[in-house]
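Entry for thymidine-5'-diphosphate complex. Fields follow.
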Amino acid sequence: MILVTGGAGFIGGNFVLDWLLGHDLVSEPEEVLNLDKLTYAGNLATLEALKDNPRLQFVHGDIADQALVGQILQEHQPRAIIHFAAESHVDRSIHGPSEFIQTNIIGTFHLLEATRAYWSQLPGSDKGHFRFLHVSTDEVYGTLSATDAPFAETHAYEPNSPYAASKASSDHLVRAWHHTYGLPVLTTNCSNNYGPYHFPEKLIPLCILNALSGKPLPIYGDGQQVRDWLYVKDHCAAIRTVLETGVPGQTYNIGGWNEKANIEVVEQICQILDEIQPRADGKSYTLQMTFVKDRPGHDRRYAIDAAKIENELNWKPLETFETGIRKTIQWYLDNPQWVQGVVSGNYRQWIDLQYSTNK
Ligand code: NAD
Ligand code: TYD
C-alpha cells in the first residue's frame, strides 16, 4: 500500500481518485491510506466516489504528529509515501505565514523523522524499494524576466513569498535526509495546476465561479504576470511516473509548456463561458474583469523546463491549456454540489459530525 498525505486537497484528491479509479491496470490498484488534517482546503467530498471503496482508508491527523505518523507506518507498512500535505495559497501566506512554517517546514521535518525510523528497520529489499516522494513547486526558484530561460532543476533557489520559502525549506530537508541518512527520496517541482476540485481561492476556479455568479473577476496589478499551467491529471501521471522510475535523490521539474499571462487566462475562461453558458443579458463575461491592487512581492513569470522528466522518464502532458481549461470549466458547471459544499462550509460541519469521535 501507499501512504498519501494531503489526499483530501486539490492535487492529492485527484491523485487518489486516479490511482484507485482511473487506472487501466489488469490487477487491482494498491491500497491507499490518506492522512489529512482537513484544514479549510481539505474536503472529503472530493473522494465521494471512493466512499465505499475498501482500498481507501482515511486517518484524520497532522503530519507534524510524529507519534501518530510512526504508528500509522508500523501498522500499515507502506512501500511509499507521496507527500502532498501543505498550506498552498500564496495570498494566505502573506496574511499569515505561521501555518506555512508549521505545516510545510516543521510538519515535513516530523514526517521525515517518522519515515526514517520506519524505513531504517525495514528488511533489505523493502528498504531498497521504499520511496518518499515530496511534491513541491516551481515557486522555490523565484521569478523570471520575459526573456529568461525556463526553470531547469539546476536553477538556484530564490523563493520570494512566505509560501515559496516554506516549500524551499522543505525541499532542502528532504534533500538532506537523502544525503545524510540515505532515505530514498524523490522531489518533484511542478508549475501551477488547474482542474477539477480546485479550491475557489485560486485564480482559475475563482474566476469561473465569480463569472457565473455575476461577481467581479479580480486581476492583480496589470495582469501581465505569466504562469505555466498544467492540467492536474497530467501532474498526477507525472508523479506516478517519478514514483515508479525516478532515481532516488533526484529532482524532476514538471510543467505543461503552457505559459500564459493571467489576463489571457481570464479572457479565455470568459470566452468559453460566453460560448457554453452565456450570460442572461447576452453580453460577454469579460465585462466582469476588474483590475485590483497587486499582490506584494508578486512574482512576474514562472516557466518550467520539463526536458529532464520527458527525456529520462518518458513523461509528457496529454492536455494543452485549450483542452484542459474546457474540461475544467465543464466540470465546475456539472458539479454545483461540490462547489456549494466548499463555499458554504457545509462540508466542514459534516466532517466535525462524522469525525468528532475520531479526533
Ligand atoms: P491544497 O491546499 O488544495 O491541499 C492541501 C491538503 O493538505 C488539504 O487536504 C489539507 O487538509 C492538507 N493538510 C494541510 N496541512 C496538513 C497537515 N499539517 N497535516 C495533514 N494534512 C494537512 O493543496 P494542493 O494545491 O493540492 O497542493 C498539494 C501539494 O502540491 C502542496 O505540497 C503544494 O505545495 C504542491 N503544489 C501545488 C501546486 C498547485 O498549483 N496547486 C503546484 C505545484 C506544487
Ligand atoms: P494563484 O492561483 O493564487 O497561484 P500562484 O500565486 O501560486 O501562482 O494565482 C495565479 C496568478 O493569478 C498569480 O499571478 C496571481 C494571480 N491572481 C489574480 O490576478 N487574481 C486573483 O484573484 C488571484 C487569486 C490570483
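NOTE: The chain has a mean pLDDT of 95.
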